[in-house]
Design goal:
Blueprint lengths: L3 E8 L9 E7 L20 E5 L5 E5 L4 H11 L6 E5 L7 H13 L4 E5 L4 H7 L5 E5 L12 H11 L3 E8 L5 H14 L8 E5 L1 E3 L37 E3 L3 H12 L5 E3 L3 H5 L3
Parallel strand pairs: 1-3, 2-5, 5-6, 6-7, 7-8, 8-9, 9-12
Antiparallel strand pairs: 1-2, 3-4, 10-11
Helix pairs in contact: 2-3, 3-4, 5-6
This protein binds iron/sulfur cluster.
């Protein structure tokens, strides 16, 4: 049984595999509260899971969903073009034991598994590692967590994750401290043999424009949030008049400074904004 916020088909909007078609399972719950979180609805427990089609039709299904029901819903959107099932959140590994029950059934059907994770729960990763093909691991700096330092947990997580295809992702804001980025990069590459070969994606934070104040004025907090947790349907661009736009919250100059700091430790660095935000899809 999985507790889910939503199931939907879309194109991967972030990271190294941007653009690949996937079926997304957004799992309930998160163990962190990042300052830039763009999926706050995943931190609450909804009574029902929203199941979307490519056409934007939505159906509500009561939580938790039995494994057979999850599988049936994925298969309804699955096709030859699909790259993988994306486990996203929230933090999917909070339901590692339930995932360990259902992931073998996905693999039996030839589905690859792509895990999007905040990279802080190494013990939970071990429970599902054998079925996971790709790991998109976020790095969480203290400045994004009110000073909380999770580097040791992240190092332990990465020691486990390197057994699979893994890349690192860091959400970058204009205010992201260069010394924190450098400190994380240095420790990771010093303590994990070969870590410098892991692809590293800097992801500029997406800043939501206010629907009420027009496209020129962004939400005062700078924290991107959908009103009431609502999101536009998959494949449906919100009307321009509603002002549900996003912009990249990072200047090219700052991105270059951060990329240079990362490149001192990692061989392959890319700066990739969120595709789905620019497109207005899920
Ligand atoms: S780990 Fe992800 S879902 Fe959890 S608070 Fe941070 S950004 Fe939001």
């Amino acid at each position: 049984m999985l507790r889910l916020v939503e199931i939907f088909p879309s194109f991967q909007g972030e990271g190294l595999l941007v653009g690949v078609p996937q079926v997304f399972l957004r799992l309930v719950g998160c163990n962190l509260e990042c300052s830039y979180c763009d999926t706050p609805e995943a931190r609450a427990e909804p009574e029902s899971c929203r199941v979307w089609s490519w056409e934007g039709d939505m159906e509500s299904v009561a939580n938790p969903l039995p494994d057979a029901e999850v599988l049936r819903r994925i298969e309804a959107s699955w096709g030859p073009m699909m790259h993988s099932v994306s486990l996203t959140g929230g933090e999917p590994l909070l339901q590692a034991e339930a995932l360990a029950g259902v992931l073998p059934r996905f693999k039996e059907r030839g589905m690859s598994i792509y895990l999007e994770t905040n990279g802080t729960l190494p013990g939970e990763l071990r429970k599902v590692l054998e079925w996971v093909d790709w790991i998109a691991m976020d790095l969480k700096l203290p400045s994004a967590l009110g000073g909380r330092d999770l580097l040791e947990a992240q190092l332990e997580f990465l020691r486990v994750a390197v057994a699979r295809r893994v890349f690192l992702k860091l959400v970058a804001e204009e205010r992201t401290p260069l010394e924190e980025v450098t400190g994380f990069c240095r420790r990771i590459t010093r303590e994990i043999p070969g870590a410098g070969e892991i692809p590293f994606v800097l992801q500029p934070v997406s800043v939501r424009l206010s629907p009420f104040e027009g496209p020129e004025k962004e939400v005062a907090t700078g924290v991107p949030r959908m009103p009431g947790g609502a999101s536009p349907a998959p494949g449906i661009s919100p009307p321009a008049s509603a002002g549900h736009g996003w912009r990249v919250g990072l200047t090219a100059r700052r991105a270059a400074e951060l990329a240079e700091a990362v490149a001192a430790h990692f061989r392959e660095v890319r700066v990739i904004p969120q595709l789905h935000r620019a497109w207005g899809i899920k």
